[in-house]
Design a protein that fits this description.
The chain is about 20% helix and about 20% strand. The protein contains six helices and 13 strands. The C terminus is likely disordered.
Length: about 280
């Protein structure tokens, strides 16, 4: 049995210190086989936010892989954003977009964050040809019998909503991942946990989203996912500060625009959906 703690959207600068201490204690006590952090380490990619985030991550004492979120690229220094966008990750650069090999599985990164896009909203995801090619090559290079868990920041497609695709190139990427029989695609960005099976022309793909451990909560309290791998399957347990049962933490859809958090007074997304599997509760 292999366990992965899936954490996302830490947002140093608006972090929840109580939630971060709780997560760090869980990791220290339970010693998962790996920790996958699916982006948005900071609020505005400020140097002090990165310093705090890198210090927290470096102290976790577990194998960690870190994806880059849209909040992690420089907001106020456009020269750095375009010339050296990962400069502020240097304290943990060996962890960024890192593959982690596990018994029978591997965490494989997929970049969905771009320094610029041909649309006004750069916070949304995009899967470029080079990024997808790199991920597919890494999956194809895995040993026989080893299945990939693909880690990215943005959910690759919307699930049950009417708006446009959340991530440009996401549908094509998901279809290509289906060809490789991936175990799941794990992501963050929407600040609420979900566990869905999404159909593609090449077969279904499981999509698992983590909530946030920041103050930028949306519909559910601060949380992270505990993924248990056994017998070629993943069981999802959403661990949260309020001890809400896992089933009630999972949302039905990826929110249409995926722009956390909601504005004050804005209605919340529905909760309480039935997940794709029957996970244990917490």
């Amino acid at each position: 049995m292999t366990r992965i703690f899936h954490i996302s959207d830490i947002h140093f600068g608006l972090e929840d210190r109580r939630a971060l201490d709780w997560v760090a204690q869980c990791i220290a006590r339970e010693k998962p086989d790996a920790v996958a952090i699916t982006g948005d380490l900071t609020m505005r990619a400020r140097h002090r936010e990165f310093a705090a985030a890198c210090e927290w991550i470096s102290a976790l004492g577990a194998p960690v892989t870190v994806e880059v979120g849209n909040h992690d690229l420089p907001y106020f220094n456009l020269v750095e954003r375009f010339v050296d966008p990962y400069r502020r990750f240097r304290a943990i650069e060996e962890l960024v977009e890192r593959e982690i090999d596990l018994p029978g599985a591997a965490l494989v990164p997929l970049k969905t964050t771009a320094r610029a896009q041909m649309r006004l909203n750069w916070s949304k995801g995009t899967v470029g040809k080079a990024a997808l090619t790199q991920t597919l090559a890494a999956i194809d290079a895995l040993p026989a019998g080893c299945r990939a868990i693909v880690a990215c920041h943005h959910p690759l497609v919307e699930a049950g909503t009417r708006g446009k695709a959340l991530t440009r190139g996401g549908s094509n990427a998901l279809a290509e991942l289906a060809r490789r029989n991936v175990l799941a695609v794990i992501s963050g960005h929407v600040h609420d946990p979900f566990d869905l099976i999404h159909p593609t022309p090449n077969g279904p793909v499981r999509m698992i989203g983590a909530g946030t451990v920041s103050q930028r909560v949306r519909s559910t309290p601060p949380s992270f996912n505990e993924l248990t791998l056994a017998d070629g399957d993943i069981k999802v347990r959403v661990r949260n500060l309020e001890h809400v049962p896992t089933r009630d933490m999972l949302i039905e859809d990826v929110p249409e625009n995926a722009l956390p958090p909601r504005a004050e007074g804005e209605p919340v997304a529905p909760v309480g959906a039935v997940p794709a599997v029957d996970p244990p509760v917490h």
